[in-house]
């Protein structure tokens, strides 16, 4: 096989197109509509070049096609490519769906026209004459292809020009500009192919298609304005350098050789010194001046970071921090719009994790608040990879094509050009969104690196502001709760005072009629006629016993009223506790026998030293404690009374004290209510289930006994508490009451209120 130049060129073209097609599939996949359009275009040009290469190689595969198709194989390829290029232009320009309808109608009509002409028998015979022009079948096909190509190329270029003027983002304008240049180069190649210069047309078309593919494959394109200025700057610098070196060489040669006839070695040395000490420094200064002329003053990154850090480091208000951060970044990059968002991880309605992205201001715009699932590709990139993204990358890269519609709508509402995540340690806490630059230039790699550094510095200030905001919120809630507690405390004090007033009034008001009732019942009990009648005698005994119980209740009410008003008077004297405890137990001996309760008084109680206290008051203390043990201990239970001597310095007693414990085998006390048993009117369990009677199991009562115990013990500078593993009527864990009394009170021998 002889490799002719035509075959070699078309083979290289086919290889280039198929290679580029595979690269596009690898980089962009098949889900991206822009990549699919480019793949179709590359496939068309591959088939066009491959067919020509095989035909030149002697395989003549095109001979199996109709004659018009074989003759205008390149024309058909270019025509179909123009249709696909129109499609790519629509996608890059992001035009509306309405534009597709006209394109679709035009493609169908023109394609049917061209295909219809192919059914005309292809020969050299004249078809018809129009105004002196002789139309042959081949001329008709070529004219339709050429005219269709011109129409679609013209529509595409018009679309790009209109979209360039309408585009809001500089990245879109820059992309359209580069795409337009690629279309222009491809247009030149197509024209050459139509003119029969297929070799040169193929080479130029390859360059144009390569530029178009570059637009599709690369999300962040270079700004051509900056690139053009760099090229001009380099060209001018090279020209100036050339002119400087030529003039230096000519001047040295003319001066030293022609005038002074100096040797060439000396001339070379002088030239080297002149270039080293004079020409090169001047050229470097000239280059700096040209850089400032073309690109402006170069940013001092260190100064920017230092100023930024100083301005935001002491800001603790979230509103102010958001404003300062956005304003400073906008000034640095010449950006028209920007937003600082706070990011919070929360649980969705169905239990899935999601990120709430909202403004860092008190007055938040609800339309700018976004909800992003934690599994979203965007969330993964911003949270875990901590990578900044441009809107062009989100629109073009295939990995972001699966983003939810809600997220895309949110991004569309933001109308931003670049997004930079903010992380504090391992937590994604914020998002900095910036709009397009006012200069129209894109965000370059240096800009993204600087933004990421600024985001790292913002993270510390953002965390501090969020912490202060949280503390202020907690403080506000605490103040609100404290105010509510004060109101509740005031109400409780009012209720407690009402209870105390009721007790005081009721005890005084009931005492007089109770005295009358007791007196008359005693008189009736002593009457001989009534005593002789057993029925009346039993009834009178019940009345007297009830009056006696009522009298004790009223005495307890008076006692608790004195405790509440701090009017409890004690007559302190040296008191031995064993006689008091024994006397209380003897008075309850009948109850012990009836209930079959076993009461044990430890002999250590008799060995306790005397304390300073009021014997009557202490008698009430142990009477209430023993009665409480009897009341909540089932029949055949056990009550143990023991004591011990506390050494000097024990707790708050420098001179020591004594401890009396009363332990029962009763139903016990729920640990949640340990402290409540010493409050007024407290009853354990369901009061409706309590039996009546002071000594019966779970017998009822006013609920004042233990409150009186605590009041009297406190008046003696003592301590009283109870311990119990729990309340259970089946296992009867029991409870133990502890009473500590000091050996000597601070007011020993005096009345104490």
Overview of this structure, please?
With 753 residues, the protein is an alpha+beta fold. It has 4 domains: 5-218, Up-down Bundle (Rhopdopsin 7-helix transmembrane proteins); 226-295; 312-462, GAF domain (Beta-Lactamase); 568-752, Heat Shock Protein 90 (2-Layer Sandwich), CATH 3.30.565. The protein is built from 22 helices and 17 strands. It has helices spanning 5-28, 33-56, 67-71, 73-93, 98-118, 137-166, 170-194, 198-217, 224-259, 264-295, 301-312, 318-333, 377-385, 391-396, 405-414, 445-526, 528-532, 534-564, 577-587, 589-595, 615-631, 705-715; strands spanning 128-130, 133-135, 338-347, 353-359, 370-373, 389-390, 418-424, 427-434, 570-571, 573-575, 598-601, 611-613, 638-646, 657-664, 719-723, 735-742, 751-752. β7 (418-424) and β8 form a beta hairpin. Mean pLDDT is 76; it is low at 67-71, 120-137 and 745-753.
CATH architectural arrangement of the largest domain? Up-down Bundle
Helix content: 55-70%
Structural class: alpha+beta
Mean pLDDT: 76
Number of strands: 17
Question: What ranges have pLDDT less than 50 throughout 5 or more consecutive residues?
Answer: 67-71, 120-137, 745-753
Neighbour order of strands in the largest sheet: 5-4-3-8-7-6
* CATH topology call of the largest domain: Rhopdopsin 7-helix transmembrane proteins
Instruction: Give the overall form.
Output: elongated
């Amino acid at each position: 096989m002889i490799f002719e130049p035509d075959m070699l060129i078309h083979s290289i073209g086919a290889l280039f197109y198929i290679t580029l097609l595979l690269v596009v599939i690898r980089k962009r996949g098949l889900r991206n509509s822009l990549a699919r359009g480019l793949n179709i275009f590359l496939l068309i040009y591959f088939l066009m070049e491959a067919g020509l290469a095989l035909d030149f190689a002697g395989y003549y595969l095109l001979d199996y096609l109709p004659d018009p198709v074989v003759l205008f194989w390149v024309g058909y390829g270019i025509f179909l490519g123009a249709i696909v290029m129109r499609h790519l232009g629509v996608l890059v320009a992001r035009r509306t769906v309405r534009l597709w309808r006209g394109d679709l109608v035009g493609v169908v009509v023109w394609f049917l026209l061209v295909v219809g002409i192919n059914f005309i028998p292809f020969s050299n015979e004249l078809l018809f004459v129009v105004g002196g022009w002789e139309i042959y079948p081949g001329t008709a096909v070529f004219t339709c292809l050429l005219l269709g190509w011109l129409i679609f190329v013209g529509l595409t270029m018009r679309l790009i020009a209109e979209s360039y003027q309408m585009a809001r983002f500089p990245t879109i304008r820059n992309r359209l500009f580069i795409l337009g240049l690629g279309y222009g180069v491809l247009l030149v190649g197509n024209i050459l192919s139509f003119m029969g210069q297929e070799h040169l047309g193929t080479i130029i078309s390859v360059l144009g298609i390569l530029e178009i593919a570059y637009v599709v494959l690369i999300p962040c394109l270079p700004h051509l304005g900056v690139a053009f200025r760099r090229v001009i700057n380099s060209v001018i610098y090279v020209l100036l350098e050339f002119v400087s070196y030529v003039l230096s060489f000519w001047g040295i040669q003319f001066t030293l050789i022609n005038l002074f006839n100096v040797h060439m070695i000396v001339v070379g040395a002088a030239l080297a010194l002149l270039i080293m000490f004079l020409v090169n420094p001047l050229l470097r200064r000239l280059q700096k001046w040209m850089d400032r002329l073309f690109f402006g003053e170069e940013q001092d990154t260190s100064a920017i970071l230092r100023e930024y850090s100083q301005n935001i480091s002491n800001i603790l208000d979230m509103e102010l921090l958001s404003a300062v951060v956005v304003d400073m970044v906008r000034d640095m990059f010449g950006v028209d719009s920007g937003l600082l968002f706070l990011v919070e991880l929360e649980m969705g309605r169905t239990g899935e994790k999601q990120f709430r992205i909202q403004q860092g201001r008190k007055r938040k715009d609800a339309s700018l608040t976004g909800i992003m699932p934690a599994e979203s590709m965007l969330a993964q990139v911003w949270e875990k990879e901590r990578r900044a993204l441009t809107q062009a990358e989100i629109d073009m890269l295939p990995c972001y094509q699966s983003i939810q519609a809600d997220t895309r709508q949110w991004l569309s509402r933001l109308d931003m050009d670049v997004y930079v995540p903010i992380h504090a340690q391992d937590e994604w806490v914020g998002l900095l969104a910036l709009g397009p630059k006012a200069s129209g230039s894109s965000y370059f790699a240096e800009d993204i690196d600087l933004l990421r550094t600024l985001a790292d510095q913002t993270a510390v200030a953002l965390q501090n502001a969020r912490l202060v905001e949280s503390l202020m919120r907690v403080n506000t809630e605490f103040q609100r709760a404290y105010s509510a507690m004060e109101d509740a405390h005031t109400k409780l004090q009012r209720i407690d005072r009402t209870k105390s007033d009721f007790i005081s009034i009721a005890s005084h008001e009931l005492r007089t009629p109770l005295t009358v009732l007791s007196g008359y019942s005693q008189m009736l009990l002593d009457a001989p006629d009534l005593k002789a009648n057993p029925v009346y005698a039993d009834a009178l005994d019940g009345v007297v016993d009830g009056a006696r119980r009522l009298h004790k209740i009223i005495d307890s009410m008076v006692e608790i009223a004195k405790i509440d008003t701090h009017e409890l008077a004690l007559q302190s004297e040296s008191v031995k506790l064993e006689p008091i405890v024994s006397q209380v137990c003897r008075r309850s001996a009948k109850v012990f026998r009836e209930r079959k309760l076993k009461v044990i008084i430890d002999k250590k109680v008799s060995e306790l030293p005397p304390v300073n206290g009021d014997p009557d008051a202490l008698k009430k203390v142990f009477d209430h404690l023993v009665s409480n043990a009897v009341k909540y201990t089932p029949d055949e239970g056990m009550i143990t009374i023991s004591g011990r001597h506390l050494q000097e310095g024990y707790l708050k007693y420098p001179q020591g004290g004594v401890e009396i414990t009363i332990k029962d085998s009763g139903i016990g006390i729920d640990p949640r209510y340990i402290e409540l048993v010493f409050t007024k009117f407290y009853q354990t369990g369901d009061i409706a289930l309590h039996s009546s009677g002071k000594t019966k199991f779970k017998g009822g009562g006013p609920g004042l006994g233990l409150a009186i115990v605590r009041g009297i013990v406190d008046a003696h500078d003592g301590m009283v508490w109870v311990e119990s593993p729990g309340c259970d009527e089946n296992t009867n864990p029991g409870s133990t009451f502890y009473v500590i009394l000091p050996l000597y009170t601070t007011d020993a021998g005096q009345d104490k209120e």
